[in-house]
């Protein structure tokens, strides 16, 4: 059978008695040697270009000093060493461990926080492991996220009163506990200014607490024959909303009394 490509050559020299059908056995005609040499060169060239479809097995180290192009899957049967590329090289080349460390390392590297948990950045190139923890009325499952997503469950909302369970607010008690003049409280107040309408906001510095009284009564008759008011000497603080309307037509010195609600 003629040996038409390199893979058909024998590792035993005496078995190579032809090349491409040209006789090169012991005692062959000298006239065939030049043809045999030309055939040898052609077969080596076919192997170099890959046109003979022969595989290539390298028993020792394989060094490629130029670009290598692989048109199919490359199987590496042992450790492969590639040239380390620079950190700025974004081309499609084999990346070694050293290259990866260089490319993502340094001051921009995401540091290992040293423990399991939710990773947070606390400073440049510094991380910490955090754990979602339970609180009053709240339970947490898998707070560090190792076994799955953390789950937060409401086990009893803390109410305004400080107890657990449904939120309940004793509005009356809360209002009753407010200090005089606190936000949310009302005052019957005197103000000497131009008229204003309900909903207007007024500075507390121009409002004085006031009260009405009957200026004249006759005997046991409590029907007032005249109503006037008395005001305190200390103005209020904060901002108030007028809950009633006062005369717009009187002069700026006319005294006005109505109900005010502190809003801030």
Descriptive report:
12% of the residues lie in helices and 22% in strands. It is built from 3 helices and 12 strands, in the order ββααββββαββββββ. The chain has a 6-stranded antiparallel sheet, with no helix packed on it. It starts with 17 loop residues before the first strand and ends with a strand. The model has no long low-confidence stretch (mean pLDDT 79).
Number of helices: 3
Task: State mean pLDDT (0 to 100 scale).
Answer: 79
CA radius of gyration is: 50 Å
Order of strands across the widest beta sheet? 8-11-12-7-9-10
Strand content: 15-25%
Major β-sheet profile:
6 strands, antiparallel
Structural class: alpha+beta
Order of helices and strands: EEHHEEEEHEEEEEE
Shape: rod-shaped
**Helical residue percent band:** 10-25%
Distance between the termini: 107 Å
Domain unit count: 4
| Unreliably modeled segments | none
Q: Say how many strands there are.
A: 12
Features:
4 domains; 3 helices; alpha+beta; 6-stranded antiparallel β-sheet; two-stranded antiparallel sheet
Itemize the secondary structure elements and their pairings.
Blueprint lengths: L17 E2 L2 E2 L9 H17 L47 H8 L13 E6 L2 E5 L7 E4 L9 E4 L16 H6 L9 E7 L8 E3 L4 E7 L12 E5 L7 E4 L12 E8 L2
Antiparallel strand pairs: 1-2, 3-4, 5-6, 7-9, 7-12, 8-11, 9-10, 11-12
